[in-house]
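Researcher: Going back to the complex we discussed earlier. I've cleaned up the inputs and rechecked each line, so this should be the final set. Can you rerun the prediction on the complete assembly and write out the structure?
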Amino acid sequence: MSTKGTPHFIAQRITALLLIPTIIWFLISMVGHFGSDRAEIYAWLANRTTAMVLAVFLLALFFHMRLGMQEVIDDYIANPDTRSMLSFLNTFFALVIGGIAFWSILSITLTA
Amino acid sequence: MGMTEKSPISGRPLSPHLQIWGWTVTMAASIAHRITGIALYGGSILLAAWLAAAAYSEEAYGMVAGVMHSLPGRVILIGFTYALLFHLINGIRHLFWDAGQGFALKTARASAWLAFLGAALLTALIWTYGLTQTGV
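Model: Rerun complete. Updated structure for the full complex:
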């Protein structure tokens, strides 16, 4: 990442700005669903507006997370081979876990 | 700060040492931002598992919900709530700094306390409500 400082910085801020309202919305939604069963959660997730906001939220979240972890790796891991391996795993993790989350909300809203 | 040592011979202050320093709230907020960020990174697995379980089946959802409703599950969720709120408030602090605002020592200290205590207060409010809704 040593030559990608500025794009990294900007992307981290853009995702942070997107995450402020979406995180607040997500937290309020979760508070509203304390004690909900699967049917109620499913109905909430199936709602088109919920799904749309969640899609933006999840993309920003997994992008932001990957950037933040990249910074930690760059700061603390001196060995270049270890650093490359951890950077690879970081992107891999964000894509797999983010992909699963994204697929889940799409499949619910598109089949409901 | 009051942590500058004085030379026993001359009585004059010694240079600060690299490994001798006292904690300040701004330092604590800085490292806590990183720690909560790393914790939330791990927490994303739970978020994805919960969404996937909702999409998959009643049994899968029951399993994830069972873990989240257990005592250790709740402790973890309360921890994630605090981490999320702290990272959110402290993140906003960082965005103010990016805009060149809030650097005065007094402001930086006050906003660091706000991040720690604001997150604690909101976590307490959310979960006091949550536990009345779900039963302790």
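Model: Worth noting: Helices of chain B lie at 25-56, 58-69, 71-98, 105-134.
Researcher: Good, that matches what I expected from the previous run.
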